[in-house]
UniProtKB/TrEMBL annotation:
Naturally occurring in which organism (per UniProt): Geothrix limicola
Name this protein carries in UniProt: Glyceraldehyde-3-phosphate dehydrogenase
A Pfam family of this chain: Gp_dh_N
UniProt KW keywords: Oxidoreductase
Domain of life assignment: Bacteria
Gene behind this protein: gap_1
Similarity-based family: Belongs to the glyceraldehyde-3-phosphate dehydrogenase family.
Residue ranges occupied by any Glyceraldehyde 3-phosphate dehydrogenase NAD(P) binding domain in the UniProt entry: 2-154
Amino acid sequence: MKHIALNGLGRIGRLAVRRLGAGAPECLCAVNDPAPLDQVVHLLRRDSVHGPSALPIEGQTESGQDYLILGERRVPLYHALDPALIPFPDETRLVVEASGRFTHRADAARHLKAGVSHVVISAPSPDADLTVIAPVNGAELDLARHRVISNASCTAHATAPMLKILEDAFGLDQAGMSTVHVVTNDQRLLDLPHKDRRRSRAAFQSIIPTTSSAFGALHRVMPTLPTGFGGAAIRVPSLSVNLVDLVATLRRDVDVASLRAAFESAARGPWKGLVALAEPHTVSCDITGRTESVVMDLDLTMTLGKRFVKVFGWHDNETGYAARLCDLVMDLVGRI
Ligand SMILES: NC(=O)c1ccc[n+]([C@@H]2O[C@H](COP(=O)([O-])OP(=O)(O)OC[C@H]3O[C@@H](n4cnc5c(N)ncnc54)[C@H](O)[C@@H]3O)[C@@H](O)[C@H]2O)c1
């Protein structure tokens, strides 16, 4: 049995624990977070966005060692701050780095010790061995060469299919994107210093324009993207579900019907399960808890010129991303 350990039990780490705990509990061998056991257990059991855990979750301390009891499975919980100092069990083969603290290769690679052969970072990384959005470039994964792997970002996973479907159906000339993005723990509840001065402002008071690491990840995963492809994140005072607003100029004339048909056929065919279609009149809370990478809102599709188009796609930045993270990790752990 090949085993997975998880570092960082925040929004994404806890959803990954819930998902692995329910779907593949035998694979999860250890977790690490500086927070005390009782606080970790409390937040694993209850979630302000996603509700109570379906899986019974308890905490236990035995001979000074903390454990999470996830259903039938007992998993040690460590509290180290430095990846190199986490005493993950010998059977650990893959570490999911979900703390948000170690996104550079050299930092994440501190997990590579004893039997750990691979690390998956739950975020864009400037210098990971490979950035993967599995349905787009998963075939490039070479487990002998790629040891520290970035799973890109939630926004990148939502935007990549939108770009790829347009590219495959009509050819892509230029593109730009804004993500209307909910608050994350990298913002401030009230005004407090932050290196990004806009993120230093009270998150639930303002619309906060900021950067998105999705663009770098998308250029790494899709090297043929138009070089100017870029945009911004517009952070809004909401808890979950983002809306990607993508504009593009295409290489062929299109109308709204042909645009919609391309996304409908992709959602039924090669992208089934990852791309879905929204119900009419959707608003963000309708998408909470969805696990697809993107849910296209085809009613909002527009042509702004014969070849100039605008398309919109929703995604649950937490459950959608945690699902893609667990897909990748389960695929890798089956192969290493
Ligand atoms: N929240 C999202 O929507 C989202 C989506 C996709 C990717 N991501 C990425 O996933 C990563 C985690 O994001 P999040 O929103 O879950 O973060 P979070 O702030 O909710 O949680 C971070 C967790 O890491 C723990 N931690 C802090 N220092 C640590 C250390 N030294 N070692 C181990 N754990 C430590 C914290 O106690 C906390 O539990 C980030 O890189 C983020 O960009 C987040």
